[in-house]
Design goal:
The protein has 210 residues and is mainly alpha-helical. The chain contains six helices and six strands. The structure holds zinc ion.
């Protein structure tokens, strides 16, 4: 039995929103979020990753989600940089601004289940409150360092580490393989006798912990 499935849902959606809607780098290349109708499609896809029944978001809502994603991004960046106090402050600000609160709800023939927002809240506020609560649950637990930003060069996509031994450092196997390949090349470069290539594999993530 998984008592935390709702937390898992909203944290996963938070990662998807950050990675789809914030600019930066993705797997070695500059990344710009889509605009126009493609933005609404990207938001809908992020939500449907864990809630297939969610309706298509409107372009106006998509713009609001972009602002939410920027706030969520700041939390991941703070955790990855070892600034846990900043991450906690940012999450508390989101909890307050979205009016996040627990509430048991029953709809669409489902059994009673916990939401982190009021039934009257807008779609954007509901998800923002849910994502903020999900990050709060993670940050307030022993698993707080499991929120991360990819350690590969030219990539800053977010992830949540669900591995058993908390060993994840990359957003994807694609980035993991890029770093491995670069490390191998560095180690086998002519005239670099004994070079380990370890420098290429060093994480950007700070080892500092609170
Ligand atoms: Zn990456």
């Amino acid at each position: 039995m998984d008592f935390t499935s709702h937390t898992s849902t909203v944290v996963t959606v938070a990662v998807r929103l950050v990675n789809a809607l914030t600019p930066g780098h993705q797997r070695g290349r500059p990344y710009l979020p889509p605009g126009g109708s493609a933005l609404a499609a990207a938001v809908t896809a992020a939500l449907r990753a864990r809630r297939p029944d969610v309706r298509q978001v409107t372009p106006g809502e998509a713009g609001e989600f972009r602002a939410v994603a920027a706030q969520l991004r700041a939390v991941f960046d703070a955790v990855a940089a070892g600034r846990t106090d900043d991450a906690a402050r940012l999450v508390n600000e989101m909890l307050a601004s979205t009016g996040a609160r627990p509430r048991l709800d029953r709809h669409d023939g489902e059994s009673w289940h916990l939401h982190f927002h009021s039934a009257e809240d807008s779609l954007v506020t509901s998800w923002a409150a849910g994502c903020a609560t999900g990050l709060a649950v993670v940050l307030g637990s022993e698993a707080h360092e499991r929120l991360g930003v990819c350690a590969a060069p030219r990539c800053d996509r977010a992830y949540v580490d669900t591995s058993r031994n908390a060993s994840r450092r990359f957003c994807s196997t694609s980035c993991q393989n890029r770093v491995k390949a670069a490390s191998f090349r560095a180690a086998h470069r002519p005239g670099r006798r004994g070079a380990s290539g370890a420098a290429a594999a060093q994480p950007k993530k700070s080892s500092a912990s609170a």
